[in-house]
Design brief:
Helices cover 29% and strands 23% of the residues. The protein has 461 residues and is of the alpha/beta class. The protein folds into two domains: 291 residues, 3-Layer(aba) Sandwich (Aminopeptidase), CATH 3.40.630; 135 residues, Aminopeptidase i, Domain 2 (Roll). The longest helix is centred in the first third of the chain and has 20 residues. The model has no long low-confidence stretch (mean pLDDT 95). The structure holds manganese (II) ion (2 copies).
Length: 461
């Protein structure tokens, strides 16, 4: 066999940066600037829903609950409990094409009774949300985002720590001088859930003997938001990393930022939907909450809000198919990130079957743990369809799985949406340091994720 022949049968895999033009490189870098700006302003599920509905309204999308009927060309959105969202472009056919991502990220929520005082310091006790490596969250600036609800029902949006004039919050770790016992411990025991207490203040309220520092923090909260300690128990406040997104590397090829799992997919799928030129099928971008705690609760992928939307759509469109039929016949992408192979910890990955930063969007046939447990194992027929869409649109893509077989594993919402009977496959960019306060993505993968989602929407156009 000649060298040429041999080459043609092998799937040659290499860095996407070697395969793009100078013009595309510019497009990639420009695209990343807008994405970083988006990330810096949208750190919670509620913030994403506000951002997205604002964008959608600017693009001529209307609240579906205000529509009497739907027909081809209509653009609508449906928000659910301020934490989940479906955006739709109505096609000449009611058949759904769905891209679904999640908009919650691991973080530190508050305990119901968070505020304490110890040794002249006021602290907020947290209860972490999602899978975090706890020691990564100490000694770094945190911001406080979320909502407080006053007794009259008024909602106060809280955001402290992201503007340079704002104070930040921090969990103070032990100094190395006194850490000899700490350093003997197992890493999982160095920082425990109960250790994740955030510094809130040090100035005592004058003429008050019991817990004067705590009382001063309560006074400041009252001055600022007109709330009391009971309102704290009702609220939804989240500590998230305060640092803004930055370019990473001397070549600035990567992006370091909090919450890229999974807002990198939420951002690119929303943009792909808005930019899509498809007029045939009905395109849905679905954004769900609570993926990071197992998709439980009424704003998660496992709630009935999707079928509720589908039924509403069916009624307004006046089609013969029920909402369940539409979901059953749908074609979907589960838009979520995967772990990229990390040269510092490559022993947990199979290099041949891992995703590489800079090689494009990853399509994973299956995920799950050892033995494909709890995985959505997509059909080969559907994978082939996705492959041809990506190849026809010159999307740079790769495939792999998350880590070595018996090393662990992870899930997405793919298997939950698959319950409706729809075809679905996982597709999203690889990320380094997933679930950490500073996740790393590749600008090339970001852009080709957008291109891949848009190609999926634009197919059959
Ligand atoms: Mn995810
Ligand atoms: Mn995750």
């Amino acid at each position: 066999m000649t060298k040429e022949n041999k080459k043609s049968f092998e799937w040659e895999r290499k860095s996407g940066w070697l395969l793009i033009s100078d013009n595309e490189r510019k497009e990639i870098f420009n695209f990343a600037e807008e994405y970083k700006d988006f990330l810096s302003k949208n750190k919670t599920e509620r913030e994403f829903v506000l951002y997205a509905t604002d964008q959608l309204e600017k693009e001529g999308f209307h609240d579906i609950l205000k529509m009497n009927r739907l027909s081809a060309g209509d653009k609508v959105f449906y928000t659910y409990k301020n934490k989940a969202l479906i955006a739709a472009r109505v096609g000449s056919s009611p058949n759904f094409k769905i891209i679904a991502s999640h908009i919650d990220s691991p973080r530190l929520d508050l305990k119901p009774f968070p505020l304490t005082e110890d040794y002249d310091l006021a602290l907020f006790k947290s209860h972490y949300y999602g899978g975090i490596t706890k020691y990564q969250w100490v000694n770094r600036p945190l911001a406080l985002h979320g909502v407080l609800i006053k007794k009259d029902g008024k909602v106060i949006n809280v955001s402290i720590g992201d503007s340079l004039e704002d104070p930040v919050f921090v969990i103070s770790d032990l100094l190395p001088h006194l850490a000899s016992k700490q350093l003997e411990k197992k890493m999982s025991e160095v920082i425990r859930g109960e250790t994740l207490q955030i510094l809130m203040g040090n100035i005592p309220l004058k003429d008050d003997e019991k817990n004067p520092v705590k009382k001063n923090v309560l006074k400041l909260l009252h001055d600022r938001y007109d709330i009391d300690e009971q309102d704290l128990a009702i609220g939804e406040l989240e500590f998230v990393p305060a640092a803004p997104p930055r370019d990473v590397g001397l070549d600035a090829s990567m992006i370091g930022a909090y919450g890229q799992d999974d807002r990198i997919c939420a951002y690119t799928s929303l943009k792909a939907l808005v930019d899509s030129s498809s007029r045939k099928q009905t395109l849905l971008a679905v954004f769900v909450d609570k993926e990071e705690i197992g998709s439980t609760g009424n704003t998660s992928a496992d709630s009935s809000f999707l079928i509720h939307f589908a039924n509403l759509f069916s009624k307004l469109y006046g089609c013969n198919e029920s909402g369940a039929d539409l979901l059953f016949n749908a074609e979907a992408i589960s838009a979520d990130v995967t772990g990229a192979i990390n040269p510092l910890f490559s022993d947990v990955s199979d290099p041949e079957n891992s995703s590489y930063l800079g090689r494009g969007v990853t399509v994973e046939k299956f995920g799950g743990g050892g033995g494909k447990y709890m995985s959505n194992d997509s059909s080969s027929e559907y994978f082939n369809k996705i492959r041809s869409i990506l190849n026809n649109a010159s999307v740079l893509w790769q495939t792999g799985e998350l880590g070595k077989i018996d090393e662990g594993g992870g899930g997405t919402i793919a298997y939950i949406l698959a319950r409706f009977g729809m075809e679905i496959i996982d597709m999203g960019p690889p990320v380094l340091s997933m679930h950490s306060p500073y996740e790393i993505s590749s600008k090339l993968d970001l852009y080709h994720t957008y291109k891949g989602y848009k190609a999926f929407y634009d197919e059959n156009n």
